[in-house]
Task: structure prediction
Amino acid sequence: MLFANQQGENRGAFSDENLMAFAQAIGLDMESFRSCYRSGKYADVVEAERQEGQARGVRSTPTIFINGQKFEGAYPFDVFQPVIEAELGRRP
Result:
């Protein structure tokens, strides 16, 4: 639902109102969702992840790291497979 409704960075697609509408559209328990969302329970975790991404130079989604090698953009598995296999071959 989030990916289907993104409109670009900082364009309001993920406003509180829209997120509530998305949650309802996919059939979430709205009382539980509202309570969790408004509590800020995961705000520190989200902020820590954002800071780590910024520190690692993440500028776009998706960004994938394989043992420190950064891949920006959506790639098919066959792009990652040789990198993964090479990394696995380096392990004792």
Remarks:
- The mean pLDDT is 91.
- Residues 1-41 form one domain.
